Amino acid sequence: MFKEVTIGQYYQTDSVLHRMDPRVKLIGTFAYIISLFIVNSFVGYAFAAVFLAAMILLSRVPFGYIVRGMKAIMFLLIITVIFNLILTPGRPLIQIWKITITWEGLSFAVKMAVRLIFLIIGSSLMTLTTTPNQLTDALESVMGPLGRIHVPVHEMAMMMSIALRFIPILMEETDKIMKAQIARGADFESRSLIKKIKSMVPLLVPLFISAFRRANDLAMAMEARCYRGGEGRTKMKPLVYRGSDMVAFAILAVYFAACIALRGAGY
Amino acid sequence: MGIIQTLNLIHDYITRDEEGNEVGTVRALDDVSLDVEPGQFIAVLGHNGSGKSTLAKHLNALLYPSGGTVIVDGMNTQDDDKLWNIRQEAGMIFQNPDNQIIGQVVEEDVGFGPENMGVPTKEIWERVEESLKTVGMWEYRKKSPNHLSGGQKQRVSIAGVIAMHPKCIIMDEPTAMLDPSGRREVIRAARALNDVEKITIILITHHMEEAIYADHVFVMDEGKIALQGTPREVFSEVEKMQALHLDVPAVTMVAHELRKAGVDIPAGILTKEELGAALELVPSVASMQSGKIS
Amino acid sequence: MALFVDDITYVYEKGTAMSVNALNHITVEIPDGQFIGLVGHTGSGKSTFVQMLNGLLAPTTGRILWNGQDIHEDGFDKKPLRAAVGLVFQYPEHQLFEADVLSDVKFGPRNLGLSEEECEKRAEEALLATGLPKEFWKASPFDLSGGQQRRAAIAGVLAMHPEVLILDEPTAGLDPKGRDEILDMVRDMKNHRKMTILLVSHSMDDVANYADRILVMNAGAIMMDGTPREVFERYRELEPIGLSAPQTVYILEYLKEHGLPVATDRLTVDEAAAEILRARKQRNV
After folding, report:
1. Which residue of B149, B182, B250 is in closest CB contact with C248?
2. Contacting partners of chain B (3+ CB pairs under 8 A)
3. Nearest one of C173, A166, C209 to B183, comparing CA atoms
4. C142 chain-A contacts, CB cut-off 8 A
5. Contact check, Cβ <8 Å, A234/B128
6. What is the mean pLDDT of chain C?
7. Domains present along chain C, CATH in parentheses
8. Residue range A196-220: average pLDDT?
């Protein structure tokens, strides 16, 4: 049931985007998302679409794979469109029963849908081309300055990385406990909601206990290996910008400036 | 002087009721004194609840004595300033292979200890390579730990400890969750470290066949050292071992039964070759004279 | 009441590049009242195989018959099957979840829709059978020791009144004492309650001492099927697949090679010692 969710899962191949410093991708994704809210015309969206298409080509991730990942957010997308369609006041377009769809609503709904789709594809492009590890490193590095105002940046990154390591283990464990309880006659397929919630107890209690036990063990193992927070730690794989990363930053800056210019020019 | 010494070590676990008030204590270690020489291979045997894991955690300053002292390479574990030096010099391997691997890639896990110690990047890579090669896991350096067998995971953990350049490694039931081939892998790695790298090994186990190769065996029961000596001395005490709910090697048992039936053979036979010699089927083997089997 | 496995195969991730043949044309009968040892290296398919027997996994091809009925046929109710074929997973103590031991053991019977009285009765019986002292019955399962937790978890399966009891590595992680206690308990189940036992293990020494019949699995197939003696006679074939015969076989083999006329198929320490004594006497006359 978890296997169907492909959105944003690392796709292993070799491409310019895969090799790019994860910090560039992180900042780039952030800039791209902002740009989607700067541009406000169909010319602007077309420009953002071209940029996105170029990135997809560079990533060498099959387009179909990305689209399949979008299925997971289809529901969210439809809700957004419907709400914008019916709740935006303005010049009436069609009236069905008590619901009025306006010209403004239609234009707004389309814009929101486009933004949302671009936003999700843009950010999943980052996770598709960046291993969770690199992403954690990038977050730690980019957020580094926040450490000066006592935000526990290293600790947050470490937590993220440990969580990522243990997700597959806990998934497997869930499967095992579920089977064991089914062997004792448990029913996880009941249709009634109350029964469904009740049937989760024999699954969730052992799962939490196991997670806590693992957390305990892991904490001890980390201490035994001299872990004492981020201070004084060195890096086995420090992030280093290369020339190509600088070029990427430059392209990003040009794109971002163009978006602002488009908005300024009234497009 | 020994690399690890405990002197009248006592450990009490405090039991609490639901409000967190002390309701009593359980004595897990009771007056344990031992002295380990550098380069020795030590086995600590005992059934579950005998106190052997509690002992292990004292040797790496994960627990502090309720009474008595623990000295690691001349440093008292209760000396806070020495805490990180102790943990670097006395590495630790735990029972569950999944719950001690931190990295998502084998090589990153091995680098974790050196990173914590502040080793420069270039040297971390050297240490990672050397450690993974020592345990024979170099080809797996780019793999996710989730795709390895139990024995391989434990070898990665061992590499992670070696990369910290310890003088001594304490292994707390490293084979308890493994299948026979995984057990063999781990024990082979431990013996190689002891033989080649001269690292002191303290192996805590309830599998007696893993203790046969040790220089010295401690048998724990109810928090005390119940029996100690060379493997031969310890396993000669078949009845005592059985009373402590521990196994002795099958060949030792067979020899013991033969002795009981009046066959004139020495006690403490540890290998089938020794049994053959004792039954005068083959000329006496040299290993009968020394305490250690190799 | 017997289980019959009719030519089953099982393919993981069918139709993808990751497709793996986990089980390969297995046909085997499990008649009433046998104590069967199922041995194999990690990854040989043992765990997949036992999950087939109570319908947790469905074979890709082939059938599983319970009393002559295909358990994956439309309309077959799996609930009674899961009671009749009890499966104790590896590290079963990891499934305990109730506030006290007794309630946890009652979970199975409750799922069968039995009356509270009957559940209680069965739970108590099951706990008695596992030898878990009464003082622990009302305790939280999480306050018990590892060995005690395992008994409580096994009781949870026994309370379903299985006719076939499958145990997947029930001694994993236990010390010699805990191991012997669990195995003795399992033997009792067979002798006094006439249960059919399927014990999954990679310890040949354990299986040799307890089983009447041994199945050896390798690469998803049954490689040997016979009495312990028949299987261990072929111990040289066991080594390449990561298994070994009981220690006594190697000891006797060595003595025989060096001139003591012993039979090598003695699987326990007592039998081996007796055989050596016999051979010595024979040689001296």
Report:
1. B250
2. A, C
3. C173
4. 209
5. no
6. 91
7. 3-231 (3.40.50.300), 246-285 (no CATH)
8. 92
Q: Could you say which of A224, A236, A237 has the minimum Cβ distance to residue B62? A: A224
Rounded to an integer, the average pLDDT of C234-256 is: 89
The confidence score (pLDDT) of residue C166 equals 96
A80 pLDDT above the threshold of 90 = no
Token representation of residue C15: 């139709």
Nearest to A180 among C83, C92, C160 (CB): C92
Mutate which of B80, B86, B102, B164 to test chain A, going by most A C-beta atoms within 10 A?
B102
State ipTM: 0.89
Judged against a pLDDT cut of 70, whether residue A6 lies above it is answered with no
- CB atoms under 10 Å from CB of A57, counted, come to 13
Shortest CA gap B247–chain C (Å):
7
Q: How far is B66 from chain C (nearest CA, A)?
A: 23
Burial (CB count <10 Å: 0-12, 13-18, 19+), residue C281:
exposed
CA distance A168 to chain B (A): 8
For residue B179, which residues of chain C lie inside 8 Å, CB to CB?
A: 41-42, 202
pLDDT value of residue B289: 47
d(CA B269, CA B281): 15
What pLDDT sits at residue C162? 95
Domains belonging to chain B, first-starting first, are 4-230 (3.40.50.300), 249-294 (no CATH)
**Residue A227 to residue B128, Cβ atoms within 8 A:** no
- Answer yes or no: do C247 and B251 touch at CB < 8 A: yes
Name subunits touching A (3+ CB pairs < 8 A). B, C
Mean pLDDT over the full length of chain A: 86
Burial bucket for residue B45 (CB in 10 Å: 0-12, 13-18, 19+): buried
Among A224, A40, C15, which Cα is nearest to B112's?
A224
pLDDT score for B292: 46
Which of A96-100, B125-129, C183-187 bottoms out in mean pLDDT, i.e. has the lowest? Answer: A96-100
Q: Given this model, what pLDDT does residue B2 score?
A: 86
State whether the Cα torsion B216-B219-B225-B231 is positive or negative.
negative
**What residues in B contact C42, CB-CB < 8 Å?**
149-150, 179, 181-182
Q: Which of A77-86, A256-265, B153-162, C33-42 has the highest mean pLDDT?
A: B153-162
As given in the structure block, the two tokens for residue B58 are 């004292």
Distance from the A170 Cα atom to the nearest Cα atom in chain C, whole angstroms? 13
Sheet harboring C69-70: ordered strands across? C20-30, C3-12, C61-66, C69-70
Whether residue B68 contacts residue A96, with contact meaning beta carbons closer than 8 Å, is answered with no
Number of other residues whose CB lies within 10 A of the CB of residue B22: 9
Report the C-alpha gap between A181 and A178 in whole angstroms. 5
C-alpha–C-alpha distance, residues A194 and A199, integer Å: 9
pLDDT value of position B187: 95
Q: Which residues of C touch A172 (CB under 8 A)?
A: none
C60 confidence band (pLDDT: 50, 70, 90): very high
pTM of the model: 0.87
| Positions in chain B whose pLDDT score sits under 50 | 286-292, 294
Query: Nearest CA to CA, how far is C255 from chain A (Å)?
Result: 46
pLDDT value at residue A57: 92
Residue A87: predicted pLDDT: 79
Beta carbons of C86 and A183 less than 8 Å apart: yes
Distance from CA of A120 to the nearest CA of C (A): 28
What percentage of residues in chain C have a pLDDT greater than 90? 70
For C138-165, the three-class secondary structure string (H helix, E strand, C coil) is CCCHHHCCHHHHHHHHHHHHHCCCCCEE
* Complete DSSP assignment for C190-203: HHHH--EEEEEES-
| A240 in B contact zone (CB under 8 Å) | no
Nearest to C271 by CA among A183, B258, B4, B132: B258
For range A50-74, the mean pLDDT: 86
